Amino acid sequence: MKLNKIFLTATLLFAGVCANAQETVTEYVFQPHWFGQAQIGGQETLGEGKFGKLLNPNAQIAFGYKFTPYFGLRLAVNGWQSRGGIHMMPNEYTDFAGIDNYYKWNYIAPTIDAVFDLTNLLGGYNPTRCFEFDLIAGLGTNYGWHNHDARKLQASLPMAYQEDDLGLNALWGAKWRFLGHVGCAINFNVSSRVQLGLEVTANVTDDTYNSKAYGQNTDWYFNALLGIGWSFGPKYNVNTRVIEEPVAPEPVIVEKVVEKIVEVPVQVEEKKVEKEVLRRDVFFLINQYVIRPQEMEKVAQVAEYLQSHPEATVTITGYADKGTGSMAYNLRLSAQRSQAVAKALQDKYYIPASRMIVKSMGEDMYQPYPDAVQNRVAICIAE
Q1: Predicted local distance difference test score (pLDDT) of residue 326
Q2: What is the 3-state secondary structure (H, E, C) of 70-136?
Q3: Cβ–Cβ contacts within 10 Å for residue 123, how many?
Q4: Where do the DSSP E strands lie in the chain?
Q5: Taking a C-beta distance cutoff of 8 angstroms, is the pair 80, 59 a contact?
Q6: pLDDT digits (tens, 9 = 90+) for 61-99
């Protein structure tokens, strides 16, 4: 009887022991750096003439500084040659017989440009991508000179057309004009410091640029340039380290044995059932929300728990390392991580969405772990 009482009053409680799983993590840390570009291509002036008739050679050289993974400034000097033309009506061809109605001049256009790296801004910083896509916007000036062809054309016109009847106003000499432009570029990484790329820009200046002045309209020309870019210093540092990735404890089922006391009348004490809780932490690599195979095993364990406990629900909370990336990017990434786990539970294990509560890190940027790497996680609590 004494042994029986000892057995009945003993309670067994097993604490989950955290296992350590080693993982090698490579992190890329952006380094501000100077860069240069040399490009060559073509220019098409917007004017009266068929495409190709107003096509000209074009070149550009630029130097700049990239302050963040998403933003840089550059000084670009673009120039070479532009071309214009005058329009002739069919009945005027005889009057213009033997006259070339196209003319060219030289120009140089220095600008200060802002360069926005959309690839890093939208997809997170990753210097090992094979390409990047940039938006470009800038202001500067355009200096035109050597407008002799337009002067000669004006002098060769029949007298009836020399009073600006064709809108030709070729009397400007060397002249500075205000210039603005916008464009885009796609660059392909050849090495850690060298890129090959294509840049396209639309440039706007005042109405006298093409030697014609009909009013207050603006003149446009478009540049397409192929070239090479290089950085004068390292663009990033590589940090590789081995981390101890915590594995959430296995669920512990605590069974309480209650002694039944029989009296007259017989009363049976109700058996108290304790609630069982399961927690699994699904870890992600930097700037990613794809579930790796070893982490998918944890998702499978959550699904198995929910299948064996039909009344249970799971709360999935995504997090991101606040030390990497902007607040807006981390808020989006943490939500993507929790949604990735929820989607896996729903698509692969057929857990209905009604049994899942999907949350993510708020603007307070709460971090569940002291180690930054461990905060790239989606924590699942099923109960």
Answers
A1: 86
A2: CEEEEEEEEEEEEEEECCCCHHHCCCCCCCCCEEEEEEEEEEEEEEEEHHHHHHCCCCCCCEEEEEE
A3: 14
A4: 20-30, 33-45, 55-66, 71-85, 102-117, 131-145, 175-189, 194-205, 219-231, 236-246, 278-283, 314-318, 356-360, 377-382
A5: yes
A6: 999 999 999 999 999 999 999 988 776 555 544 445 556
Which is it for the CA torsion 340, 243, 32, 195, positive or negative? Answer: negative
Burial of 262 (0-12, 13-18, 19+ CB in 10 A): exposed
Strand, coil or helix: 174: coil
CA angle centred on 21, ends 20 and 22, rounded to 5°: 115
Structure tokens at 5: 């009482």
Indicate yes or no: pTM above 0.85: no
**Closest to 316 measured CA to CA, from 290, 297, 294, 344:** 344
CB-count exposure of residue 308 (10 Å: 0-12, 13-18, 19+): exposed
Q: How many CA atoms lie within 13 A of 156 on its CB side?
A: 15
